[in-house]
Amino acid sequence: MDRLKNFVEKYYREEASQILGYFPTQTIDPRMIRAVMINEVAAKKPIEDFYSLEEKSEYVQSAVAIFQQAEVKVQTIDDILNLGIYITNAIKLPKTASTISNERIEYFLPILKTELELFPNVKVIMLMGDVARKSFNMIAKANTKKNALPSGSTYKLRHKEWYYQGIRILPAYILTGKNLKIERSKSIMSAEEVRKMLEIIHS
Fold this sequence. Notes:
Blueprint: H1 2-11, H2 16-20, E1 35-41, H3 58-69, H4 77-82, E2 85-91, H5 102-116, E3 124-128, H6 130-144, H7 154-157, E4 162-164, E5 167-172, H8 179-182, H9 184-201
Parallel strand pairs: 1-2, 1-3, 3-5
Antiparallel strand pairs: 4-5
């Protein structure tokens, strides 16, 4: 993870300390990561995000709830990491507007690309929400001249098998946010994708 930290400090000098505040404090062996879940945008504060030092941050509670719906016995972000699953945000700082522009996605894209390159043994990438999908498609298009996922509703796309450079791509819904408690069908479908992800990384 030092490579990623150095990258941020070099190319995002003015915002480096803010961005790094959202990064994991845990020691992570990149070789042990088998799946990456890409959420849309960082929480309002690092203390509410996935790698917060708080025992039950808002983002961790949302992630744990999806895993528990998938009948996976986890309680903390460390439990999820121990499964070989790394969670990150496509947009590395909180929203500055109600919608996320392409310019904002492109601004943080080099960090996401560098982050994904850390993990040599990834078998699955789960794209949770439209911003995550758009971000990953930008990376794929730059490398292969085509999107990893076509346009279309997540509901339809998730019933087909998609691959990018031998890695299984799973489209799912956003991992965080209050809407998950309202739109239960989306969290149920994301839980189904989590089960699928675990089957793949353990096969």
